[in-house]
C-alpha cells in the first residue's frame, strides 16, 4: 500500500508542474526575447572581453594567447596612471559641483507654492537638448570671445581660457554636464521630497520651525537613503566618463582631460590594441563590481 502511495506521488507532482507550465508558460515566452538580447549584448561581450584580455587580438590572422602580457602593459604605462588621476579628479569635481545641484533644486521647488510645474519643466529642459547642439552651444559659451569672457572683460577681469587652460578644462566639462543632466536626478529627488507626509511639515510650522529648520530636520533626513544610493550610482557613472572629454577636447589640453575610459577608447580604436583595452576594461569591471555590491546593499537597506 505504501508502494502504491509512493507511486501515486510523481504523477501528481508531474501534473502540478504541467499545470504551472500551462498557466505561466505564455508569460515566460514573452521574456525570451529580453533574455536573449540581455545575453547577446551584455554578458557575451563581458565574457569575450575577459578572454580578449589574455590574448593578442587580431581579427585578420586570428587571436593568440599572451597570458598576462596585456595586464603588464597596463601597469607599465605611465599615461594610464595619469588617466586614473584625471578620472578621480573628474569624479571629485562631479561630486563637489554636480551632485548637490539636483538636491538643492528639488528642495527649492518643493517649497514653491505656485507654478511648481513650470519650474520642473524649466529644470528638465536641458536634458532634451541633443548632444551635438549641447557641445556646440558650450563651445560658444566658453570661447575666448564668448559671453562669459565678454562679461569678465566688462567687469575689468582677464578672460579665462576654459578649453585651452589645463587648470580649467576639466571643471568646464563638469559644469557643462551638470547643467545638461541635473534635471533627471532632480525629478527623482523631488518625487521623494513630495512623498514626505505633509503632517510633519505642518507640525513643524506649528512649533515655529522656519524653512531652513524644516529642510534640515525633516527633508534631508527623509531622503538620506536616496542620497546615498544616487551617490553610488553617480560614482559608477562618472568613473566611466569619456564622451564629453573625447568630443570637446580629445583628452587635451596636455592630457588634462584624458580619463581612464577615454584611454580605453584610445587603445581600442586609435592604437587598435584590443587586448590591452580589454584588460583595462576588466580592471574597471572589478572596481565597478565592488561599487555595484555597495549600491545593492544600500538599496536593500533602504527597502528594509
TrEMBL record:
Protein keywords: Cell membrane, Membrane, Transmembrane, Transmembrane helix, Transport
Compartments, record wording: Cell membrane
Signal sequence segment: none
GO cellular component terms given for this protein: plasma membrane
Domain ABC transmembrane type-1: 84-295
InterPro entries named in the record: ABC_transporter_permease (IPR051393), MetI-like (IPR000515), MetI-like_sf (IPR035906)
Chain segments annotated as transmembrane: 27-46, 88-109, 121-141, 178-197, 274-294
GO biological process: transmembrane transport
PANTHER family, per database record: ABC TRANSPORTER PERMEASE PROTEIN (PTHR30193), DIACETYLCHITOBIOSE UPTAKE SYSTEM PERMEASE PROTEIN NGCF (PTHR30193:SF41)
Family assignment from sequence similarity: Belongs to the binding-protein-dependent transport system permease family.
Protein name (Swiss-Prot/TrEMBL): Sugar ABC transporter permease
Organism: Cohnella lubricantis
Amino acid at each position: 500500500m505504501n508502494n502504491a502511495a509512493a507511486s501515486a506521488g510523481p504523477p501528481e507532482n508531474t501534473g502540478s508542474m504541467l499545470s504551472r507550465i500551462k498557466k505561466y508558460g505564455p508569460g515566460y515566452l514573452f521574456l525570451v526575447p529580453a533574455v536573449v538580447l540581455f545575453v547577446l549584448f551584455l554578458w557575451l561581450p563581458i565574457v569575450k572581453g575577459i578572454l580578449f584580455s589574455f590574448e593578442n587580438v587580431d581579427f585578420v590572422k586570428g587571436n593568440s594567447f599572451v597570458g598576462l602580457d596585456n595586464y603588464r602593459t597596463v601597469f607599465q604605462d605611465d599615461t594610464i596612471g595619469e588617466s586614473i588621476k584625471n578620472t578621480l579628479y573628474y569624479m571629485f569635481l562631479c561630486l563637489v559641483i554636480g551632485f548637490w545641484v539636483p538636491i538643492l533644486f528639488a528642495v527649492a521647488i518643493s517649497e514653491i507654492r505656485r507654478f511648481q510645474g513650470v519650474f520642473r519643466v524649466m529644470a528638465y529642459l536641458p536634458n532634451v537638448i541633443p548632444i551635438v547642439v549641447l557641445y556646440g552651444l558650450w563651445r560658444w559659451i566658453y570661447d575666448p570671445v564668448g559671453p562669459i569672457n565678454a562679461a569678465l572683460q566688462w567687469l575689468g577681469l582677464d578672460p579665462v581660457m576654459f578649453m585651452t587652460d589645463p587648470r580649467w578644462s576639466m571643471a568646464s566639462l563638469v559644469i557643462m554636464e551638470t547643467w545638461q543632466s541635473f534635471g533627471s536626478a532632480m525629478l527623482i529627488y523631488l518625487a521623494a521630497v513630495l512623498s514626505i507626509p505633509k503632517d510633519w511639515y505642518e507640525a513643524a510650522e506649528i512649533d515655529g520651525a522656519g524653512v531652513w529648520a524644516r529642510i534640515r530636520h525633516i527633508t534631508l533626513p527623509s531622503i538620506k537613503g536616496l542620497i546615498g544610493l544616487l551617490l553610488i550610482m553617480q560614482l559608477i557613472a562618472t568613473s566611466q566618463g569619456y564622451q564629453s572629454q573625447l568630443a570637446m577636447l580629445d583628452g587635451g589640453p596636455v592630457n588634462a582631460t584624458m580619463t581612464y575610459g577615454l584611454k580605453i577608447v584610445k587603445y581600442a580604436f586609435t592604437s587598435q590594441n584590443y587586448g590591452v583595452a580589454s584588460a583595462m576594461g576588466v580592471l574597471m569591471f572589478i572596481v565597478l563590481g565592488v561599487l555595484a555590491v555597495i549600491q545593492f546593499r544600500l538599496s536593500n537597506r533602504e527597502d528594509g
